[in-house]
Write a structure and sequence with these properties.
Radius of gyration: 17 Å
Structural class: alpha+beta
CATH superfamily of the largest domain: Ribosomal protein S4/S9, N-terminal domain
Oligomer: single chain
Mean pLDDT: 86
Order of helices and strands: HHHHHHEEEHEEH
Largest sheet: 5 strands, antiparallel
Shape: globular
Helix content: 25-40%
Strand order of the largest sheet: 2-1-3-5-4
CATH topology of the largest domain: Ribosomal Protein S4 Delta 41, Chain A, domain 1
Strand content: 5-15%
Number of domains: 2
Low-confidence stretches: none
CATH class of the largest domain: Mainly Alpha
Length: about 210
Amino acid sequence: MARYLGPKCRLSRREKTDLSLKSGIRDLDTKCKLDHTPGQHWQRRGRTTDYGNQLRMKQMIRRYYGVLEKKFRLYYQEADRLKGSTGENLLRLLESRLDNVVYRMGFAVTRAEARQLVSHKSILVNGEVVNVASYCVQPNDVVSVREKAKKQLRISAAIDLAQHREPTSWIDVDLKTLSGVYKALPDMDQLPPEFKVSYVVELYSK
């Protein structure tokens, strides 16, 4: 399955929530009508089945983090092997992806842009270049922007936006030095409340 390259608003409209796929420079409501399903002749959804709700929730979380189906299933399998709640483990694994941490720190305006920064070798983890977006960041790891990449206009634009965003409580960031510390794994109550991860567990448990 190839990565989706179509209109980002279409995905947010399909899930009826902001998936943080747009830069945030303009208010999302001016670009995406979240109460309308995709298509020129949108229709209101009818009643859905339990399976339909489970599938939609899986798609919502997968698209939010920009993960393809095969990789998402692998994350679920790993989460199921770990001790504790499978659903909580799954979200923590997704939050620990390097591209997500770069986005959370404010070095990129979207996770897609964060993936580009990582793949273009613009990001350091504990002083070493890491160019794998799915790299799992560990608590107390230091993530920073490589010196020669700090003057990129897209990073400057991201920093300007990040200064107006609510800070992420499990991450410490210094926007002047463009470095931050992934302090700890997030708790469930710190993650988007619309994520009913139990639906995903039910879906994959069948």
